[in-house]
Fold this sequence. Notes:
CATH architecture of the largest domain: Roll
CATH class of the largest domain: Alpha Beta
Shape: globular
CATH superfamily of the largest domain: Hotdog Thioesterase
Largest sheet: 11 strands, antiparallel
Amino acid sequence: xxxxxxxxxxxxxxxxxxxxxxxxxxxxxxxxxxxxxxxxxxxxxxxxxxxxxxxxxxxxxxxxxxxxxxxxxxxxxxxxxxxxxxxxxxxxxxxxxxxxxxxxxxxxxxxxxxxxxxxxxxxxxxxxxxxxxxxxxxxxxxxxxxxxxxxxxxxxxxxxxxxxxxxxxxxxxxxxxxxxxxxxxxxxxxxxxxxxxxxxxxxxxxxxxxxxxxxxxxxxxxxxxxxxxxxxxxxxxxxxxxxxxxxxxxxxxxxxxxxxxxxxxxxxxxxxxxxxxxxxxxxxxxxxxx
Length: 290
């Protein structure tokens, strides 16, 4: 019943928290560090990979899925969770999700999710800036399976955080359009979670706001925005901000030189006043060309 868009990404995140809680034995909703300060299982990287058959913006009211989740050891300060969403009965309950399937053997009738989470805490009680790593007391991770190094997102996340883009050297076979820039004021009513931090799913809705504005600037039909086929959606979370902060969002649209209607939109999200990079998003989508 969550529908497509940010509400669906929020549901995926809830499943990640539940999976980490079950796998590690740590109550992620009430975790505290050894010195007693609250710790938060923040999202650092969120990727959803779909197909023409099933994608995050093509899910309708009442659609049902079987969700298979697997949690991997990523050290004492972080954790990696994979999900596979499939139509009921596609897989048996005993079938284990192998990361090879997500990266090399994806099925067209499934949706795949990668969540890389890091434990954080506030360094200042009344500020969402200067967040620091803070693993909860008693966090158990050594017993979890290790993710093969070739499937780790750490390298791509580190480069995106440093350069402000997932596509530092451009996108082969694509031509970039003129960047589009807009602003957004962080809404204390809608964009904060129960801990007073920017809610991880709000990043998706904020990015979609920028993408829709850019869509309109191209004189595209606004109704068609909701019928995009999103094949790959990546979000890197590199900062947080306080309520009422103004954000600057820059959209760069890369159009395929060979595939009609295939494009990749990349969005950088920065705090306007300080210039701090808060997030980088890359969306591979298919659109109906008029």
